[in-house]
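Structural prep section.
Before we set up the soaks we want a predicted structure of the protein with iron/sulfur cluster in place, mainly to decide which crystallisation condition to try first. Input record follows.
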Amino acid sequence: MLTLFFDFARRFARNRAALVGLFLVLVVVGVAIAAPWWFPRNPLRIVGRPEIWPFMSPRYPLGTDSLGRDIAAMIAHGARTTLLIGLCASLTATIIGITVGATAAYVGGWVDELLMRLTELFQTIPNLIFVLTIVSILGQKIEYVTIAVGVVTWTPIARLTRAEFMSLRDREFVQACRAMGMGSLWIMFGEILPNALPPVIVLSSLVVAGAVLFESAVAFLGLGDPNVTSWGQLIGDGRTLIRSSWYICAVPGLAIMLTVLALNLVGDGLNDALNPKLRDR
Amino acid sequence: MIMGSKAGPAPILSIEDLQVSLFTRRGVLPAVDGLSLTVSAGETLAIVGESGCGKSLTALAIMRLLPNPPAKIVGGAVRFMGRDLAALSEREMQRVRGKDISMIFQDPMTSLNPVVAVGDQLIEAIRRHNDVSRHEARDRAIELLRQVRIPDAERRFNDYPHQMSGGMSQRVMIAMAIACGPKLLIADEPTTALDVTIQAQIIELMKELQSSSDMGLIIITHDLGVVAEVADRVAVMYAGRKVEEAPVEALFERPLHRYTRGLLGATPSAQRRRGSRLVEITGNVPALSDLPQGCAFQNRCPDVLDRCRAERPQLAPLLPHRSAACFAAEKELSRDAAAIGA
Amino acid sequence: MRRIIIRRLVQIIPLIFAVIVMNFVLIHLAPGSLFDVMTSEQQITDPKMLDQLRHTYGVDQPVSVQLAKYIWSVMRLDLGYSYRQNAPVFDVIMQQLPATLILMLAAIGIALLVGVTAGVLASIKVNTIWDNLISLGAVFFFAAPSFWLGIMMTVMFAVKLGWFPVGGMRTIGVDESAFGAVLDVMHHLVLPATALGLFYAATFARVMRASMLEVARLDFVRTARAKGLSGGRVVLAHVMRNAMLPIVTLLGLQLGTMLGGSVVIEAVFSWPGIGSLLFDSVMSRNFPMVLGVLVLGSLLVAVCNATVDLLYLRLDPRIKAR
Ligand SMILES: Nc1ncnc2c1ncn2[C@@H]1O[C@H](COP(=O)(O)OP(=O)(O)OP(=O)(O)O)[C@@H](O)[C@H]1O
Ligand code: SF4
Ligand SMILES: [Mg+2]
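Run finished without errors. Recording the tokens verbatim:
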């Protein structure tokens, strides 16, 4: 097991960009974890003069926004929201995707047909419009945003899981399990899934990046949870001031971009490390 | 000598000491090493040899279509009608390809662009080298399709490659190759991917086209039947080098190099049935990365001498019109000569 | 050919049907009854109107009847009435649709032009500084939120440099000739279409690069070179033509995301399309309009998808044979 891990780490580390990505992700995670200690007071509280530019005041290294709130504090706390929603949404998407994909491939027949039509349906619905609809009907809560983002991003995972299951379904070890009289559910999730998982994990890691982008768009439009800080919301708030203080938009946008970029790079690295046979393509 | 009758006129192609190297991670490998060949107008030269001995690289080197990286011409000259092709600019070379020298490949099914109708691919070849209107090119293309015996040419003109069989596709490839009346045609295993009956037709077609045009032909093949049927001269390659060259009759009569003997089977007058493949010889070709000192064939040679391990045999004109690079053959011939002389 | 087109269009029907049912489920998931959702949020107080609504939606009848009524009304393109705009939902959406279509088409155009060019360039100059620069750019634009790009571009090109207008679709108060109007719209279109298109350009560039490198190794490319074609002609007529196929597939898959993306971009640039409409409706809790946009948006994507599929059929003759 340990050697397997080292092998994995070595292959991952061979991709320089992935290492940079991993470093950035760790920084963001670190900031998210440290935020409550670093900025113990409510980040949405007004602390000083409005519209102080970054690097101008040592007390507010990233400046203050139009109301006089500390941008650094909001970025740090926003990292928590962003990562939380990104991870939970990706988890939701992965669970839905694996369930749908695995069932479709394993059961086959009309169930497969039906589930694939369902996948197609969710691919056709313009995803952001769907998220906005859900959030507007169910309410602006962080849970609903998370679920809504998960619900619009599971389709690629379902397709991939299905394809992987299809290719594994008729392998010898599965036949052997069937011959031994194992239950369908056990074979599906105990035997096939672990083998199908590596590429699915890669895709899930990329879905985290997509979910972060979705969340930021929802928050930007002012439809996120008003009680938590979020990077997208910060950009939305700063929009009115682009003539005088465009940095209010620029800073959180850079944070989003770097986070998404880092997650994508990590995803690529995972791909290299988990699917060595695909690497050369 | 009757056999050399066709080798009379000055050669249209003469390769001198061609060197092609593969620049790989494991080092620079000599894939074609010091190869010299000539082809005259109307003549057919067959190149035979085991898989991986450098036949295709030789052909691609003439066309200057080597896969680069890793392959590159590192030495020698390819003289075509007096010009050194290796020294031409890419621009100038493009005017030679398809017009003066054409090439057809092993797998006709993958050699045509799958999303372009075959007729359009033909027209493209015609218009590249001839200043004709699309309409004229179309007429010429259909005529070419007829010439290569494609039934219902006018309808087939609009077909896509996937709608054609392998044999049909290879006919299209041939039509494309002869579209501009080349002086030299290089066919790299043109029948390997085809059914046996189709193979015969394709070979027949090529012979016919050649006889009506005085075109030089280089045919690379594994099929001794094809060699016997179409070739005037044969060059045998082993591990990147030419090890023997002879007029076809003479070669079948009496192969000199021990590798050639292995190829043709134990009996000197091998059966010349079509489809009789080169005989498998036991043992493996040494990898290009660790060729032995001396003769590359030594590990598989039944007549290996001490000298073969120490010294590399050079190609020598052992008999009129033919040459071989083999110590055992040299010895044998000098013994013969001594016997006659005595 | 016509049979294929019709068959492909017929496939859309169950999809739209499913969207309608899902809409209905969503309404029922909402806190409060269907009727509450459809009315109270819009502060309707006129009792006569309430009665009429009660009848249209069959509020007092069982769920199955409600569903049937809902489906029936949507099928007649009756998506409800918007009291905010004082017009039927369908009419309002149709009025806003052209602006969104223009924006999407322009964004697709930019994405294809920039993405394909960059991908081709990177593949031709593979492993050179050009390739690396293009890959780097792709990585960045792939990660940047489009609305943020839009804002930053506004700051740069509209506010600081003054090259383009800050938002809107036309200059207000200027009466121009038809040609002038077109130019005016195009001038307004540049920033939003670029902001929306660059993300997809990044995707296309990556896929195109990989696809070009893959195709360039194939046998028929060697044949094309053996014919004596010039390098440019080989790339354009043979390599690119085949390498474009995955791009077309990808484009079809991304239309839905693109329509979603245009919602945000329209909000950023006050572009008067269905995105702005949706945003406004969500904010004012105008649910018939929100659901109407969802249904018609899905229909739009489904139709565009079918169009892309048919386009693919034209581009790849091998498909027809199957
Ligand atoms: N693109 C390439 N990359 C690396 N090595 C190559 C490449 N093309 C050819 N080679 C190597 O060069 C040597 C000669 O190859 P070549 O294709 O000329 O053989 P061949 O005689 O045509 O064989 P065959 O009968 O199988 O076609 C082989 O060892 C082959 O592995
Ligand atoms: S040179 Fe020597 S080893 Fe090589 S073929 Fe002739 S006899 Fe055999
Ligand atoms: Mg070959």
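Observations: The first strand of chain B starts at residue 11 and ends at 24.
Flagged for discussion at group meeting.
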